[in-house]
């Protein structure tokens, strides 16, 4: 994922499915460096990690 798409997801009122290493996450914050973000697992609000935005993947759900 690139920074622009991550920013669109963070600011959107819609919910998007995003994963990091195959695990569903929420993007909490994009960092000013434009390369990293703070994320947390969808099932755990306590554990946050700083990851490279390029390693985030938007999952496309088939309805």
From TrEMBL:
Give UniProt keywords alphabetically.
Sporulation
Q: Which gene encodes it?
A: sspH
InterPro entries for the chain: SASP_SspH (IPR012610)
Q: What induces it?
A: Expressed only in the forespore compartment of sporulating cells.
Q: Which domain of life, per UniProt?
A: Bacteria
UniProt keyword Mitochondrion, yes or no: no
Location(s) in or outside the cell? Spore core
Check the record and name the HAMAP family matching this protein. Answer: SspH (MF_00667)
Name the major location. Answer: other
Q: Which family does it belong to?
A: Belongs to the SspH family.
UniProt protein name: Small, acid-soluble spore protein H
């Amino acid at each position: 994922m690139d920074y622009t798409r991550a920013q669109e997801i963070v600011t959107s009122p819609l919910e998007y499915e995003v994963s990091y290493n195959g695990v569903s996450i929420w993007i909490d914050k994009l960092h000013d460096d434009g390369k990293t973000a703070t994320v947390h697992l969808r099932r755990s609000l306590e554990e946050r990690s700083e990851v490279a935005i390029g390693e985030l993947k938007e999952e496309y759900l088939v309805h």
